[in-house]
Amino acid sequence: MNSHLAPRHIVEAIDGTLAPAEEIHLRGCDACRAEVDLVRAILKDAESAAPVPDPSPLFWDHFSERVREATSAVPVAGPSWWERWSRPVALAGARWGRVGSGRQSHRRVGLGRDDEGRDAEGWNRRYAH
User: Fold this and answer.
1) pTM: predicted TM-score of the whole model, two decimal places
2) How distant, in Å, are the alpha carbons of 2, 25, 82, 95, 99 from that of 87?
3) In terms of CB atoms within 10 Å, which of 8, 48, 56, 120 comes out highest?
4) Per-residue pLDDT for the chain (129 aa), expressed as one digit of tens each?
5) Spatial separation of the C-alpha atoms in residues 91 and 97, rounded to whole Å
């Protein structure tokens, strides 16, 4: 392995779930072993620290209110020129694809003769295959 362990591999080493290839690298790499030892020391310090009290029940209500106030002052941007332009083009393309595809759009519908005196069924037999 040419590079050092990724952060997820450091966590796996601490958890004892590191894959064999990464274990071999860890045994031979002083920098990665130092990183694993540092993270272990930080976790040990965090466990031995004084417990952090839970926030007041009102904290979350006040926090939500402050976030709503802050975000309501930020203007919401409209659609970009690309969004304004691409939607009508996409809809037109979808419509054109539906109209222009398939035999059904080329068939004359109805029995007998059409408005111009042509035999609709004969036209369908000749041209709409």
Assistant:
1) 0.41
2) 48, 52, 8, 12, 18
3) 120
4) 458 999 999 999 999 999 999 999 999 999 999 999 999 999 999 888 888 888 888 888 899 888 888 888 777 777 777 677 777 777 776 666 555 454 444 454 555 555 565 555 555 555 554
5) 10
